[in-house]
Write a structure and sequence with these properties.
heterodimer; A: 464 residues; mainly alpha; globular; B: mainly alpha
């Protein structure tokens, strides 16, 4: 299935382009005048970003500028060699291995058509509730996004299957809004790739992050479900009769897809395997299930799926590796610490800081994909958050929820455009349809941000 | 001209793909054996962990280099919708030339670093391979990325000359992780 998102305009809107570039240029000039070259680095980042430079190249430029131009001893190679040294550090942490492996397992399961199995189970399980079909959609999206790690693919795979029935029972705007905002909702649930990447970047324990993500994930899913239930009740949407035999049949049909997260969690928290080993077993499991049991993936397909997945993983990891050296330089120069002191002087309460953080991350999530955003923002935000007494595990959850909301936030959230292309509706219509759902999720985000026990309670109780 | 360069590139990519898939397969098999042996109380393979971590490095760099030729690298495409294909191709040309320069410079530094390592060869404790052999992938992959940005730049330059920008509108969403 191919989706062509309208990426370019008919003609170049020089006014928009010129104004954006001029604004960034002006900002850069101001920063340079006030703080020198080091201060102008954020403007360089923005400028290259606007020009469409690959993110890892932009970070490479920043790394070269900071290490070569702003250091004043040694030859060019001696100055720049820390960049390469940081890259070589990838062999040090076994956690890195979990990133390609969970992604690969998800890709194999997706190719094997688990979306159809999940949808059937969720419909049989939840269809009898008021707003049942909508709630089943949320369940299927959450499950699918957790397994596939991709909100774009979730919209296409699950949305494509459920959109016709949703439109018939609930109307077009509801269907469009629900599917667009649901795309990212499961990303907090294990094996959450964004959480693993946050764990790698912030050097936080992955297992703790997984546990901390559970209640917030259920909370956001639950809030959306309640909202859909009310809307379904009001719209007098038809409810499905509960059918035990169908539920049993559906579960049998989808047993292997449903079992994976349970096996993973059981394995990790039962202390049988580490998160890294679990990721590798997940690949093995996906191969056995899809090739030998479901027979939906041919063994020869695995070659293409692996190459494809590793291109994705490579494009994320190279950003991470380039960012490491920039972060390293910032830490040597104590930039985050200086920023923390400056911000603490103006923003006194932790409450106000967190609110500002929410707004900032929403904007970042709207223009950047979640992985790059985590890689770039974590090293900058973490020291400041620590100064306000925010727990690093809690911060990780806030960031992921926030950035996943950014996916569906107008005007640039990527899900809006995927939806618009896939369901063939104008972008403006998708914006409008998504807003009520976004509102519900926003309330959830605020609760997760301010009630740290939602994330940390379970971590403390589990004694990790 | 571009056709010949592309054929050379395809040959490089074919080798890279073989390496990536073998590395992943080795990682899965070795880890499974490791877990199996440990569960059976038979200890484990002392060198497996090292091999997995080294393979990881190769997979990451080769994956990144393969992503370059398909224009699959992550960008902030904020202005794309305000650009015509011609405008986009022009912007692309600028960022790709910068890509050649930056990646070329870092690859050069990486090569110099490998040279330093060769002077004091150091072996990994369990597997006994020379570290600089493993790390050679860093300058190699970065060099290939620079070369591929060069090819993309030629493609965009040709597009600007001929006015045909079909190569820019590939499928979206599919193959994106976010």
């Amino acid at each position: 299935m191919e989706v062509h998102v309208q990426r370019f305009g008919e003609r170049t809107e020089w006014r928009t382009v010129g104004a954006s570039l001029a604004a960034v240029g002006l900002l850069g000039g101001l920063l340079y005048w006030k703080f020198g070259l080091a201060g102008a680095l954020p403007a360089v980042f923005l400028l290259l970003g606007l020009l469409g430079e690959a993110l890892f190249v932009t970070l490479g430029v920043l790394a070269l500028l900071s290490f070569v131009v702003l250091t004043d001893f040694g030859t060019f190679t001696e100055r720049a060699v820390p960049i390469v040294l940081e890259m070589a550090r990838i062999t040090e942490s076994p956690v890195f291995v979990a990133i390609p492996m969970f992604t690969l397992a998800g890709a194999i399961m997706t190719r094997g058509g688990i979306s159809e199995r999940l949808v059937r189970v969720m419909k049989a399980l939840l269809g009898f509730l008021p707003g049942g079909l909508a709630i089943a959609t949320i369940g299927a999206c959450a499950f699918f996004a957790a397994l596939s790690g991709s909100s774009a693919v979730t919209i296409i795979a699950v949305g494509g299957m459920l959109a016709p029935a949703l439109e018939k029972d609930y109307g077009k705007p509801f269907s469009l809004g629900l599917l667009t905002s649901c795309g990212a909702i499961g990303i907090l649930a294990p094996p959450s790739l964004p959480l693993i990447i946050y764990g790698v970047v912030s050097e936080t324990d992955i297992q703790q992050l997984f546990v901390a993500g559970m209640v917030p994930a259920l909370l956001t899913i639950g809030m959306l479900a309640v909202y859909c239930s009310i809307r379904g009740f009001m719209a007098k949407a038809p409810r499905q009769e509960f059918d035990g035999a169908e539920l049993f049949a559906a579960c049998r049909h989808g047993a292997f897809a449903l079992a994976l997260p349970i096996l993973l969690l059981g394995g990790i928290y039962g202390g049988i395997v580490t998160a890294t080993e679990a990721s590798i077993l997940a690949v093995l499991y996906a191969v056995i299930v899809e090739v030998a049991i479901h027979r939906e993936v041919k063994i020869t397909d695995l070659w293409g799926i692996t190459v494809d997945t590793m291109m994705l993983v490579g494009s994320i990891l190279i950003i991470l590796l380039m960012a490491l050296s920039v972060t390293n330089w910032l830490t040597i120069e104590q930039v985050p610490q200086a920023a923390a002191t400056a911000i603490q002087a103006t923003v006194e309460s932790r409450f106000a800081f967190l609110l500002a953080l929410n707004v900032l991350l929403l904007i970042v999530g709207c223009v950047m994909d979640i992985f790059s955003a985590i890689v770039v923002m974590t090293p900058l935000v973490l020291p400041i958050a620590l100064a306000y007494g925010v727990d690093p595990v809690h911060l990780g959850i806030i960031m992921v929820v926030n950035l996943e909301l950014g996916f569906a936030t107008p005007p640039f959230g990527i899900n809006l455009f995927i939806s618009s292309a896939f369901f063939r509706r104008p972008v403006a219509e998708v914006f409008k349809a998504t807003l009520p759902f976004l509102g519900v999720l926003l309330v959830g985000l605020l609760l997760i941000t301010w009630l740290e026990d939602l994330a940390l309670g379970l971590v403390r109780a589990s004694g990790l | 001209m571009l056709a010949v360069l592309r054929r050379v590139d395809a040959a490089i990519a074919a080798v890279e793909k073989v390496l990536v898939v073998s590395a992943i397969a080795a990682m899965v098999v070795l880890s499974t054996v490791q877990i199996g042996m440990r569960t059976a109380g038979a200890g484990g393979l002392p060198w497996a962990d090292e091999l997995i971590r080294f393979s990881m490095m190769w997979v990451a760099f080769l994956g990144a280099s393969l992503a370059t030729s398909e224009r699959r690298h992550i960008t902030i495409d904020l202005l794309d919708r305000s650009l015509s294909p011609r405008g986009k191709a022009a912007f692309n040309l600028v960022v790709e030339i910068l890509g050649v320069l930056v990646l070329g410079a870092i690859a050069y530094v990486g090569w110099w670093y490998i040279g330093q390592e060769r002077m004091y060869p150091d072996k990994s404790p369990a597997l006994g391979v020379l570290y600089w052999h493993v790390k050679t992938i860093i300058p190699a992959a970065l060099g290939i990325i620079a070369w591929r940005f060069g090819l993309l730049a030629i493609e965009d330059a040709q597009g600007l000359k001929s006015g045909d920008f079909d190569y820019l509108s590939g499928p979206d969403a599919e193959g994106r992780l976010y």
